[in-house]
Amino acid sequence: MDKVTARNPAEPEVVSDPRLFINRELSWIEFNRRVLEEAEDNTVPLLERLKFISIFGSNLDEFFMVRVANLKEKIAQDILTTSSADRMLPREQLDRISQSVHDLFLRAVACLEEEILPPLADHGIRILRPEDLSEGDLQHLDDFFHRRIFMVLTPLAVDPSHPFPHLLQRSINLAIRLRRPNEKQIRLAFVQVPAVLARMAILPSDGTGHRLFPLEQIIRRHLRDLFPGMKILDSTVFRITRDSDLDLDDYEEIKDLAETIERQVRERRHGAATRLEIEIGTAPELIDELRDAVDLEMSDVYEVPGMIDLTGLSQILSLPGYNTLRYPDFVPHVEPMLQNARNIWAAIRQQDILLHHPYESFKPVVDFVAQAADDPDVLAIKQTLYRTSADSPIIRSLQRAAENGKQVTALVELQARLDEEKNIAWARMLERSGVHVVFGFVGVKTHCKVSLVVRREEETLRRYVHLATGNYNPDTARVYTDLGLLTCDPQIADDVSVLFNYLTGFSDLPQWKRLKVAPSGLRLFLLDRIRDEGLLGEQGRIVAKVNAVLEPSVIQALYEASQAGCKIDLICRGICALRPGVRGISESIRVISIVDRFLEHSRLYYFGNKGQPEIFAGSADWMDRNLRRRIEVVFPIEDDRLRARCMQILAVSLADNVKCRILLPDGSWRRITRKPNETPMRSQKHFLQFGDMPVLAGRRKRPMVLEDFESLLIESELSADRAEPPEKEPTATGKK
Asked: Is the pLDDT of residue 729 over 70?
């Protein structure tokens, strides 16, 4: 095999052979396939399976609103090249996406209609069809329509004086073909199902449980009330997805970021259509008329043999009761040190505290800001906000702190995709309370999760810091796995103070003491660490837990480390462009993905470092956007106790043989197959039962020390699962 040519070690050359990279969009589709597999898994409780179907649908919505929209825009602008490492052209990507998503979508609908809804009906949750309704049910729905629905509806005709209406993003609509009794001309009209009403009406109980009926079917039953005197020929239910990405490319033209985003959020309601979902059996001429009106190709049409809009199923998830159809509830563990300390400041002064959500409570993070707001000795609070909950206690605490006369600064990221309107509202609310609100940089998202409290203690000022991998959102903290660090380390506090000054004022790029920050140096730091492990050959060890691996220079560095014999494990929830297990390129790299009850969201990096391991956590995935176009913060874990916990998190994740899939060289994923008599290890269940510190089942009898965790990672065996190498196997130089 050809040797990799020498180059500047700080900036490895990206290999030119596109076969060494998996296409980003196709990799994302494979992730959503893994989500669907959880819905298809009959060992998962029924309502949890329904939740995964809803998540699958929501994921697809965002994919079409952003990624597919971006590809369509490139084609519309005659951009025939690509900058992605896999070199797949936009048109080919769209064709591959259409083929894969059509197959997956039909599979999801079949799973819902055949495997989930029938047993749900047996347990008392029924989505009724028109033929299921009794005379009493029909009378109730007629009354419900006239009392609660009719006055909200607006029938929309299409004729020379009424142009084709603008159909709102993701709204459910009825298209109706109709004519006057004495005319032959067929006319077209529309009715939008009001988004302000619940997706399904709940019928009176018949003693067997909950009975639901879709709103659009109630409206369809009463079309003659909306078009009196007209003969209804037929009707269909459909839904359109539109481009919802913001265009902030002309940075120099932006004078006010908040006003620009507010304007673009309004404009994106009129974005170009990217997908048409429509009832199966709709007349082809009606499909063509709708498709032509919104400028879509036939490959963009998804005929649905069931209920339109899988996300609407989430209404069922909120029904009371049915606990046996859900995962058992759990009470997050509370760190004993925080329970026993006089206040949170005393606990943090005693030692750094690591929180592992959702297994450990998010309440200490809420308390960190809340106690700061009410503590007379706290002088200032500085906070980044990327996404937060609807009724955020963090926001309320920041408001209260400002009203209490403290210096409060909130960096609100307005460019948080699809949450722009919420964040603008939060920003305005905070400003009214006296919080100094800033919006970061145009074109560079502030994605880091940082909170700083300045407190007066005796004759000095002390700074307390919270750093995290996830958002300041108590709701998602119950369903996302994330890590947070509470510390008063002076050097970390120095870095955080400088970070906020950099974000809110004018300054050159700072020189960081302990933090690793993108885009000012995190990527080169990662490349250096990967290269150092590669120089150790078979003694090198890298383990990383991230949401995505996409940055070409990082992938190339991992390939080079693997060629040198370094052992690499990547725990990657979503997109992965790296091909593991390719002969001569990535034979010592394993990539796994865990999809389970909680969304794996924490980012954790381990480098063996000649037996003196370095561990870092933070907000950054290994993607080009995170390392080049976002403000990200990665922080070291240096306390031996906390490093042991982090290594246990990685070791348990690597040992998962229940909810784990492994990435094969061809880009497909395969469930890990347990060996005969091998004990099942489900990592999330383990953390719920035992937390981070208990040992792996059956491995050791005595309490473990730091060196034990190191050996678990170093000795972790690569899976024997491997696909056959490609017919034309790429080499390090791209030559055969």
From this structure: no
